[in-house]
Design a protein that fits this description.
The protein contains 16 helices and 19 strands. It has helices spanning about 15-25, 70-75, 115-120, 125-130, 130-140, 145, 155-160, 165-180, 190-200, 220-230, 270-275, 355-370, 375, 400, 430-445, 465-480; strands at about 5-10, 30-35, 45-50, 55, 65, 85, 90-95, 100, 205-210, 230-235, 240-245, 250-255, 260-270, 290-300, 310-315, 325, 340-345, 380-395, 415. It folds into three domains: about 5-45 and about 215-290 and about 400-445, 3-Layer(bba) Sandwich (FAD/NAD(P)-binding domain), CATH 3.50.50.60; about 50-85 and about 205-210 and about 290-395, Alpha-Beta Complex (Polyamine Oxidase, Chain A, domain 2); about 90-205 and about 460-480, no CATH class. Strands 1, 2, 10, 11, 12, 13 and 19 form a seven-stranded mixed beta sheet that branches. The chain has a seven-stranded mixed beta sheet with strand order 8-7-15-16-17-14-18. By secondary structure, it is of the alpha/beta class. Helices cover about 35% and strands about 20% of the residues. The termini are far apart. Bound molecules: flavin-adenine dinucleotide (FAD). Flavin-adenine dinucleotide binds near residues 17, 37, 58 and 391.
């Protein structure tokens, strides 16, 4: 049995662990990263498809222009320019053969999206007015106040706030499923208000798509930075147990029985992996409540071009399979002149887990044909279905209040991961934010006499004016009827 020593051991080589490791390397430490799988990137990983040689992601992702921590991480790695920003609308929503584009106008936030919502053929002036309470709550409440809604579902909040059925169907149910990954009847109202704040409180919100495989934006570049600083990245190295000391140091035992002693230990893991690693008494409270949300991600290689867009989504309907669609040939570097490579996500896929891959592919193709009739005649060259056990944790009522701090009370390990308390929806941005917060904690522990470092960029809230205006309104609403 061997025993090695390091200043900082990070368990988990996803976005959170690598953001932490790279920022520590830049601060002169030599962090070690343990990753159980054969490649880095975790849920944002990519690899080469065996048949086509194309880089495929575990599933397609978008980032948003408000992802300041993720963009800061990519900038450190020199890859922030490899994002294709969609400038012709926030979202292209399709229903049958119709497409409707929600786009910003020059009006200040939170009015900037309203004209576009109002012009929708299914929306009346009364529908539009009915969203005022939800928008006010999302913009006016502080982070602490938003937490008071965590025992309620998003659907309950939508009803109590008087939002019309048309707005629920068109907007709120879509936001809930696509961004919270749960139907509004099952999602926490706190988590819901946070994502509404993103859209109503932020101007110039652009969706971004990686021009290369998602993992190619950060995996190899992180290894280079870590190794240049004298650190190590150990792949196929699963941590089997962790013994923490009161001073924050710890001993990590790997599956092969080898041990690593570390002055600080960062657990950059998804909740279910953390639950497997830590004994019950070591776990942050409520860990078992973080249920996994599975996805199926479908890839279809066509002979010719079948789409005119890079990214679009179906209007939410409970019987649908897919939510968001992408044509990689519209934004990936080097795909010019090729046929469409369409990829899509079936979110919260428990309901279709018994379908075979082939049936999933055929059903996805049928959904695509509704919107893109050209697909019917197009020759399908190749396809694959990725079964993803977890995209994010299910943000059910009660879970928002359970999200632990990076330094959970009474624990001496440091946490990172998209699900820790960042004030953000579980996402790549939350993972990077948590990675920076974890690095701040490591530096505090290793250099206690130095001034604390500020690495994480603050969560961007709504501007002062929308916040102050919405606040008065929201306070009245929350105390009276909601
Ligand atoms: C299909 C799909 C689509 C998504 N779409 C979006 C999107 O559009 N926008 C967005 O912002 N987010 C999206 N997400 C979510 C996003 O990918 C995650 O929020 C983010 O990648 C989480 O990063 P993380 O570092 O917190 O966790 P992870 O990526 O889970 O990293 C944890 C790492 O720890 C490793 N590990 C586990 N146990 C051990 C152990 N015992 N020892 C050593 N290593 C271990 C794992 O292998 C993994 O690599 C999507 C996710 C999926 C899967």
């Amino acid at each position: 049995m061997t025993s090695q020593k390091t200043d900082c051991l990070i368990i988990g080589g996803g976005l959170a662990g690598l953001t932490c490791a790279v920022s520590l390397a830049e601060k002169g430490l030599s962090p070690w990263v343990l990753e159980s799988s054969e490649r880095l990137g975790g849920r944002a990983q990519s690899w080469r498809d065996e048949t086509t040689g194309d880089s495929v992601d575990l599933g397609p992702h978008i980032l948003l222009s408000v992802y300041s921590n993720m963009l800061a991480f990519l900038k450190r790695l020199g890859t922030d320019h490899l994002i294709h920003w969609q400038t012709d609308g926030v979202i292209h929503q399709v229903s049958g053969t119709e497409t409707y584009t929600f786009a910003e106008t020059p009006l200040p936030s939170p009015m900037h999206l309203l004209p576009s919502i109002w012009k929708h053929p299914k929306i009346t002036a009364a529908d539009l007015v009915s969203i005022r309470h939800i928008v006010s709550l999302s913009l006016g409440l502080s982070e602490r106040e938003i937490h008071e809604f965590d025992s309620m579902t998003a659907a309950e909040l939508i009803e109590r706030a008087g939002s019309s059925p048309a707005m629920k169907e068109l907007l709120w149910d879509f936001i809930s499923m696509s961004l919270l990954n749960l139907p509004s009847a099952e999602a926490s109202a706190t988590a819901f208000l946070r994502v509404v704040r993103y859209f109503s409180g932020t101007k110039n919100l652009l969706p971004g798509l990686a021009k290369v495989g998602l993992g190619e934006l950060f995996a190899d570049q992180s290894v280079k930075k870590i190794e240049e600083a004298g650190g190590k990245v150990l792949l196929r190295s699963r941590a089997a147990s962790v013994d923490m000391n009161a001073d924050g140091s710890g001993v990590v035992t790997l599956e092969d029985g080898s041990k690593i002693e570390a002055r600080t230990v960062v657990l950059a893991l998804a909740p279910q992996d953390l639950a497997r690693l830590l004994k019950k008494e070591q776990q942050p409270p409520g860990l078992a409540k973080f249920e996994t949300c599975p996805y199926l991600s479908v890839y279809l290689w066509f002979e010719g071009m079948v789409s005119d867009r890079a990214f679009w989504a179906r209007t939410y309907h409970p019987d649908d399979l897919n939510c968001d669609f992408y044509d990689l040939s519209r934004f990936r570097t080097g795909y010019e002149g090729r046929g469409s490579v369409i990829t899509s996500n079936i979110i919260y896929s428990n309901r279709v887990s018994s379908m075979s891959d082939e049936d999933v592919m055929k059903a996805t193709r049928r959904e695509l044909e509704e919107h893109l009739p050209r697909t019917r005649e197009a020759r399908l060259l190749h396809w694959r279905v990725n079964r993803v056990p977890m995209a994010i944790h299910c943000p059910r009522p009660g879970t928002e209040s359970l999200r632990p701090a990076v330094r959970p009370e009474g624990k001496t390990y440091i946490l990172a991961g998209d699900w820790v308390k960042t004030g953000l929806p579980s996402s790549m941005e939350s993972a990077c934010h948590a990675g920076f917060l974890a690095a701040e904690e490591v530096l505090r522990a290793i250099r206690p006499t130095q001034a604390p470092e500020k690495l994480a960029l603050p969560v961007r809230g709504p501007g002062t004016l929308p916040h102050v205006m919405a606040r008065g309104f929201a306070a009245v609403m929350s105390s009276r009827s909601i």
